[in-house]
Amino acid sequence: MVLFATLVVSLSVGAQENAKKEAKPTTKPAYIHISKQDMMLYLCDSLGGHIAAYPMACGKNVGDKQMVGDMKTPEGVFEVQQIQDASSWTHDFKDGKGVIKNAYGPWFIRLLTPGHSGIGIHGTHAPESIGTRATEGCMRLHNENVAKLKPQIRKGLPVIITSSDEDMRVNLSVGIDERTPLYVLVSKESMTLSVCNYKGETIEQFPIACGTFYGNAERGGDLECRTPEGFFQIESLEGGCARVATTKYKDFGICGSDDKALFEEKGGRTTDGRVMLLEKDYQVLKGYLKVGLKVVITTSETDLRANRAK
Hints:
With 310 residues, the protein is mainly beta.
């Protein structure tokens, strides 16, 4: 799993008010959130503030993408794979209008969406479609907005696409319901771990303990008693721990403990870098975990100051 830069405070319902605050103009983008409920693309900073917000269009059909040609927009945690000049691209939308020039606007921001190809964020020849279900699965923006977005993003930037009420009704037919986890959110600001569903809502939430020292773990192989920040995924479930796959750190994971002092002392900043839950809470959490499930670990104001000081 590719590691990403310092990131985010959450997309869960419990943190939506934080996510609505204004970002500082100089803040480096940390991730993109695409909401099929709001029909908006949000460019977000590392504390969940909105750097920019753009109306968008998405797949004609509702629900999580299942197969080629189903005209659905995939839901999940993805990343920017490539940024391509699309100014000369054409496309036949099979609507009787033939081949359309400049069908994708100036840029095509291709996403890495395992199991599906050709999904991206791009402009449009039909600005009137923005805000509607109009695409073959991609996300459309007004051309001027995709031009504004392009210089602010980079390869590897995380992209979270969340569902709407209408999508969730269709998702039920493929076994996705309000209790199906889309990702796990660890917030170093609120010192909680939230299991989040396809709408970004919190299913379960638990108090945590995390790294003794503030800031993002950066030295390869050693957590330095710091909890890494970024987008990761569950690699394995072994004994009392869910191992979280990284390319830099060994022995990092989410674990259970009966040592209540870990959670009661120093505001829970007490571990070697691992994320710890009370054992009883970890046993509940295990019911949601599976190999490949995405894990989002977010920063805090204090961690962010430590990161800037490095």
